[in-house]
Amino acid sequence: MSTSIRVLLRNKPNKVNQYPIVIRITKDRKSTYTYLGHYINKKQWDEENRRVKKSHPNSTRLNNLIAAKLAEANNKVIELQTRDELISATRIKNEIVNPLQDKSFNQLAREYIQELEDNNKLTRAASDKVRINHVITFAKNNILPFREIDEVFLRRFSVYLKKTKGNSNRSIVNALVVIRLLFNRAIREGIVDRKYYPFGKDKIQIKYPESEKIGLSVEEVIAIENMEGLSDQENHARNLWLFSFYMAGIRVADLLQIKWSDIYDERLNYRMNKNSKLLSLKIPDKALKILEYYKPNKESHDDFVFPEMRKSNFTDPYDVLSKTKTATKKFNKYLKVVGEKAGIDKNITMHIARHTFGKISGNKIPIQILQKLYRHSSINTTINYQKNFVHEDTDQALDKVINF
Fold first, then answer.
1. Which CATH number fits domain 102-196: 2.50.20, 1.10.150, 3.30.1340, 3.30.2010?
2. Please, which pLDDT band fits residue 100 given cuts at 50, 70 and 90?
3. Strand order of the sheet with strand 263-264?
4. Which element (helix H / strand E) includes 88?
5. Over 60: is that where the pLDDT of 294 sits?
6. Of 218, 164, 202, nearest in space to 361 by CA
7. Residues spanned by CATH 1.10.150 within the chain?
8. pTM to 2 decimals?
9. Which of 27-36, 187-196, 222-231, 241-250 has the highest mean pLDDT?
């Protein structure tokens, strides 16, 4: 069906009874309107010739604007037809008002990062911003078109990350995932045609490398529990690590924001920072002893259990993130010393508490229960996570072969 593009005076007057000059775009009996930003009296409009009458003081300028916008709309239809792309009234309007094909990777990336920041996903925003900057630096182009991000570009970019930036395979994959995410957005917004998509079968395929997750053994955890002669800072880091482990590997960002008001009926009730899920966990006796250690410092029911976040400005997400990162770095520094004093040759960090819970739980707990304890949205995530620590079947199979 043909596309109709006409200029007219729309019958929607403003407060002073003037009417807007618009371009009406009709396709498949569906119309949309592009406002030119000018209102005139009805008596100043030539309905037959669809132009502003000479009686209007700015008739020449307005008629030139109308002619330019009509030409732009018609040219846009021809361009879309030439590119063999889907044409709709809304698509034509959007291309006129905000020409999407001119939007670069850089611009869409900025919008994406801003969206993450607006939703307080600051850790993700910070990580993805670094990955996006790598793309821009490699391309040496501040207005990188999506069409230039082809298979050759991505293969060269991967080599650049590995050789020049020294990135691991997992870091390279993470960078490609961000590019793929933005490319999919560009397709949905009509910025680039799907035929230019560089990912998928017979193209660039993203495969996550298997990562090694190291957890402590029962004996090593007991050694940490029984340690004596620690400094105040080392003991504090040890306490937080153990509390995280006792609570099924609660993440440090959630751990530091626990308030005394979150603890009642010997349960911890809190909302996760990562996905805003509500969770209620029974507090084991070992974890209750740690809470008793910090009770003398309790100033109010709404006070934080652990001191690191007491001076945070929670109206400023960046301040919260900054203090969380600083605290984590401090804990990991002292945990390294704790590990050395305990004779443990593994690098102990706050996140290792989560891995340790996974390793010790092994296949003792049903996977559905583990999913709840880990706060995973998908049971597949739990299965993939837990397979890093369950080796019983393969160990027994190996023994059957070599023990003869």
1. 1.10.150
2. very low
3. 263-264, 267-271, 278-282
4. none
5. yes
6. 218
7. 102-196
8. 0.58
9. 222-231
